[in-house]
């Protein structure tokens, strides 16, 4: 398939309008319409419901959207690898949930660039579902995440156990107030378990979708929240934060996921280095 057709489809679906898509892609509306018509003929189904208010995806369009995204990602990945091949002997595409990039994986990538400078590295942060999808489509070489599913063709290996602890920046002599609690999002499993354990905290006055932002908030404000212990251990050691010892802890296993069919000789040094760094992460 012409990758331009997939990009045009995605631009129309994002804008909900042929006119706005034409403006964004710097082509005429008739060009957009012609591309979508060709695509619909190739697939044998209408992809959009046209109306005077815009264009909405049909059921077939909703189904095609995930494939169009994959097609564009595969093409972009191929372009990147070809560009990098002139200067590097290999390219490693790494994905992880946002939590792992702070402190843990950034240190690992730094080690890779120092010890294996002839390997280019590209990194992405997204949800566990998208990471698995990208592994299956071949645009990621490995991913680090909590509680992954195991589709055929992927290997799942345990790295370490992540412990979430309740920490505070308020003074020990000061009584903690419920309205200073920060609700942080560390993924679906944590949110579900936290809601079950502390239903009264679901109405907290501050919710942060990016969990790691909770650490920054605590360092600038007197408050408390749950954080992975590896992210706050140096702040605890310096006395900038305090762990509340009687508070409940949440523990989740962390895994690396990679393809079954891989170049073992090329992968093993990379995986060994990740295992080594993981040994001190929990």
Notable characteristics:
single chain; 282 residues; alpha/beta; Arc Repressor Mutant, subunit A; D-Maltodextrin-Binding Protein, domain 2; seven-stranded mixed beta sheet; two-stranded antiparallel ribbon; 10 helices
Would you mind describing this structure in some detail?
This protein has 282 residues and is α/β, with parallel strands linked by helices. It folds into three domains: 73 residues, Arc Repressor Mutant, subunit A; 105 residues, 3-Layer(aba) Sandwich (D-Maltodextrin-Binding Protein, domain 2); 92 residues, Periplasmic binding protein-like II (D-Maltodextrin-Binding Protein, domain 2). Helices cover 47% and strands 23% of the residues. It is built from ten helices and eleven strands. The strands form three sheets. Strands 3, 4, 5, 6, 9, 10 and 11 form a seven-stranded mixed β-sheet that branches. A two-stranded antiparallel sheet has the order 1-2. Helix 1 packs across helix 3 and helix 1 crosses helix 4. The longest helix is centred in the first third of the chain and has 26 residues. The chain is globular. It starts with a helix and ends with a helix. The mean pLDDT is 87.
Domains counted in the coordinates: how many? 3
Multimeric state: single chain
CATH class of the largest domain: Alpha Beta
CATH topology of the largest domain, by name, is: D-Maltodextrin-Binding Protein, domain 2
Number of strands: 11
CATH architecture of the largest domain: 3-Layer(aba) Sandwich
Q: What is the N-to-C succession of helices and strands?
A: HHHEEHEHEHEEEHEHEHEEH
Percent strand equals: 15-25%
| Mass-distribution shape | globular
Mean pLDDT: 87
Q: Number of helical runs?
A: 10
